[in-house]
Amino acid sequence: MSGEASIDRLPLDLLAYILSLVTSFTDLAQASGVCKKWRKAVNQSMARRESLSFAGWKMDDDSTSRLVHLAYNLKELDM
């Protein structure tokens, strides 16, 4: 058996689906910093989102803009 962790063997689409279930932007930001594959998976998970809620979050315009830009299927935005 190789030294590769079992989570590293997950296909990108499956990892993106799992990350699409994460609702904490802090957790998603941390996940995107793990490695290039995880960053791609976070970006892919954002693209699948139809709604985003920033209610109760203190985010600057640049951060909000980047998240909304990634969520191109967005139908609902709660600020």
TrEMBL record:
Residues 10-51 form the F-box domain. It comes from the Eukaryota. This is F-box protein. It comes from Noccaea caerulescens (Alpine penny-cress).
